[in-house]
Amino acid sequence: QLQLVESGGGLVQAGNSLILSCVSSGPTFDTSAIGWFRQAPGKAREGIACINERGTTTNYIDSVKGRFTISKDNAQNMAYLQMNRLKPEDTATYYCAADYSISACPTYLDSPRTWAYWGQGTQVTVPS
Question: What is 1-55 written as a DSSP string?
Fold first, then answer.
């Protein structure tokens, strides 16, 4: 069973960058897809980026495409979300999730409930 822990959140001014990290404990990280999700107060959790188990396929929602980059280091059991040109609307709690389904990424990026393993989240705040 995977356990995931996110880090790297914080307060950042609009236009600046932040990188989120997700570390996994468990021997099967290299066979899991990773997704990054976020949830703003009063809003549903949304998938924003995912990467397949080998790191050969990625998917992004339109609002972060070109600004965010997801990556996965299977040797280190780590996943990352590089966030550039941050905007106030990016303010949310960000979650790392993992799933072993071959369809997890890109097919299920928009279906948070299908992802099996979740971290506790890290807060990102971009003041307006």
Answer: --EEEEE--EE--TT--EEEEEEEESTTGGGSEEEEEEE-TTS--EEEEEE-TTS
Return the residue matching tokens 């822990």: 5
Residues in the chain: 128
**What is the gyration radius of the CA atoms in the chain, in angstroms?**
13
Tokens 């972060």 -> residue = 64
Q: State the amino acid at position 61 in one-letter form.
A: I
Q: Is 120 helix (H, G, I), strand (E, B) or coil?
A: coil
How far apart are alpha carbons 104 and 81 in whole angstroms?
A: 17
Q: Would you say 98 and 24 are in contact if contact means Cβ atoms under 8 Å apart?
A: yes
Question: In the numeric block, which tokens belong to residue 14?
Answer: 């609009």
Q: What is the pLDDT of residues 103-125, one digit of tens each?
A: 889 988 989 999 999 999 999 99
For residues 38 and 78, give the distance between their C-alpha atoms in angstroms, rounded to a whole number: 18
pLDDT digits (tens, 9 = 90+) for 23-61: 999 778 899 999 999 999 999 999 999 999 999 999 999
